[in-house]
Specification:
elongated, about 575 residues, 3 domains, about 20% strand, Lipoxygenase-1, about 30% helix, O-acyltransferase activity, 6-stranded parallel beta sheet
């Protein structure tokens, strides 16, 4: 008898499809992948591949829109993935492996009335799933301040960055309303047990008295509902412990100036317990009457790719992948540092990567990793947009400390944004202990501007240290060089200045002839002279290239941006 196909259901933020996440496209199974700037899910897939599974034959990833309620994700995505897996493997049943929120999506499907007629899941294995919720969801849902593990915070920060620059009016007006209307799935992660403290002395606030409630979780965890789950499918839970995990939050009165923000109280202090994986408490990640395996010293985001966790999964399924070896490693490899450059339309982007040694990590335990010298290279951005709307991403693994030149090219007329962030280079999570502070949202340095079709602008991303965010600045000199070169070429095509006024300033003439020293002399001139010379170039462009409106506007846009920056 052939083995059953395996479907991995990622956790919150573990699925990436920008057009869907930004509501440019409706629900679809096409165009999804893991986020390209994190390592999430790669070792899990490699493990099953080494065991003889083949992607899209008997091994699938059920990507879904994690913004939506888990019931909707189960109905619109998971059932489609299950049907696809059964057809490809010629099987009647599948095995589901759900990480974090993915386990809730699986439960929503299995516990639904529609499952009775399908009856197509043989086993469910959950990894760090918040079956009874996670207190970390409160600050994200009620205050638009997500914390939790680094992978989640990174992907969520990128999503909010794109949302902010694609729908700026909505997102800048009210962040809390944006989360609660655009990302209602967070509500399904709220705890269903009392977790907020208030008063003096502090006492637990009853869940039943709160405005922010996980009604789906409360219903799914009633005794009869849990019995339905375990009777229909064999359930195994794998949990992590030994990491500071939020257990309760002391809150004060809600703010008087906002009806939605922290309606159940503004957080004053966070209380931690080491009996959890850094995001979900162990007692909240198990299911009554299920096969709840002994906990591992593994953090929440690492559970799907940790060798020890994968060894348990493989043992439960009776498979022996060679990639794990005889003795799984006691701790996972540190995350790969990455420089992420992102842009919002209407531009394309190319990054010139400097040569040198990779950035030294901010805090690596044990011996320093080998750092081979990297060669200089250029990397073009990948467009994750849809229907002509460009959403570019450049991901540079193990970045070098230095300056990265960013070349943006206008594909249309309009406003654009360039952002840069460093991920995977911080301190590793600390085992044990009580009272750790919440991690901050990853910092994305952003510049904005206006661009014309075919215009070329240049920026510099400066990366110096692993514990400092990259800085983004306009590169006036490179932009000037490119603009003057284009103007000089246009004039040459027309036989020189023709009827235009002669170029008296030697610096202007030299620049138009492509002399780098002349451009440097222009840029080093006093501010008034610089403005005057750039103004003369703009007028010359209007005279000489005005008959080619698009070409002229592209050059003038770049020159005006330089004048604005250096004037």
């Amino acid at each position: 008898m052939s083995r059953l196909p395996v479907i991995f259901i990622p956790g919150f933020t573990g699925s990436f499809n920008l057009p869907v996440l930004l509501d440019w496209r409706g629900p679809t199974l096409s165009g999804w992948d893991f986020p390209p700037f994190v390592d999430y899910g790669k070792t899990l897939l490699q493990t099953f591949t080494q065991a003889g599974y083949r992607r899209n034959r008997d091994l699938f990833v059920a990507f879904y829109d994690w913004r939506k309620p888990v019931e909707e994700s189960a109905r619109r995505y998971l059932t489609g993935w299950i049907d696809r897996a059964k057809k490809a493997a010629n099987a009647n049943k599948v095995v589901l492996i759900g990480h974090s929120m993915g386990g809730l999506v699986a439960r929503s499907y299995i516990q639904s009335p529609e499952y009775l007629s399908r009856n197509d899941v043989a086993r469910l294995i959950t990894l760090g799933t918040p079956h009874r919720g996670s207190a970390e969801a409160y600050t994200a849902w009620a205050g638009a301040e997500p914390h939790a593990d680094e992978t989640l915070r990174t992907v969520f920060a990128v999503y909010l960055w794109y949302l902010r620059h694609i729908h700026p009016i909505q997102t800048e007006l009210d962040k809390v309303k944006t989360i609660q209307t655009q990302v209602p799935g967070v509500r399904d992660l709220l705890p269903i047990d009392d977790y907020l403290l208030s008063g003096n002395p502090p006492q637990l606030k009853p869940i039943t008295s709160m405005a922010s409630r996980n009604l789906w979780g409360e219903m799914a965890n009633q005794a009869q509902a849990v019995a339905t789950l375990t009777q229909r499918v064999a359930v195994t839970t794998i949990t992590g412990v030994g990491f500071n995990t939020l257990s309760t939050i002391l809150v004060g009165p809600p703010p008087a100036d906002h009806a939605l923000r922290y309606a159940d109280g503004v957080p004053l202090s966070r209380h931690y317990d080491s009996q959890g994986d850094g995001t979900v408490l162990q007692r909240m990640a198990t299911v009554p009457q299920a096969n709840n395996l002994p906990s591992l010293a593994v953090s929440h985001g690492a559970l799907p790719d940790n060798p020890q966790a994968l060894a348990l999964v493989c043992h439960e399924l009776g498979i022996s992948p060679g990639v794990l070896g005889a003795a799984p490693a006691a701790s996972p490899a540190p995350p790969t540092p990455r420089l992420v450059v992102m842009t919002a339309s209407p531009i394309t982007v190319e990054v010139a990567v400097p040569a040198g040694l990779p950035l030294a990590p901010a805090g690596v335990l044990g011996a320093a990793p080998s750092r081979a010298r990297r060669r200089q290279r250029r990397v073009r951005g990948r467009n994750y947009g849809h229907a002509g709307k460009a959403l570019n991403l450049v991901v540079i693994d193990n970045p070098v400390a230095g300056d990265y030149q960013i070349a943006v090219h206008g594909t249309d007329y309009g406003h654009f944004a360039v952002g840069a962030m460093l991920v995977g280079a911080g301190e590793p999570p600390v085992l044990g202990g009580i009272g750790a502070t919440a991690a901050a949202e990853p910092e994305i340095t952003t510049v904005e501007g206006d661009i014309a079709r075919e215009s070329d602008l240049f920026y510099t991303v400066s990366l110096r240290r692993a514990d400092e965010p990259p800085q983004v600045q306009f590169d006036a000199r490179s932009t000037m060089v490119a603009a003057v070169e284009r103007l000089g070429s246009a004039m040459s095509e027309r036989g020189g200045v023709l009827g235009a006024a002669p170029v008296v300033d030697d610096r202007l003439g030299g620049a138009l002839r492509g002399e780098a020293a002349a451009v440097d002399a222009m840029m080093a001139a006093p501010p008034d002279q610089r403005r005057q010379m750039i103004g003369e170039l703009i007028e010359l462009c209007k005279t000489m290239v005005g008959d080619e409106r698009e070409r002229a506007l592209a050059i003038i846009t770049a020159l005006e941006r330089v004048r604005e920056a250096v004037g």
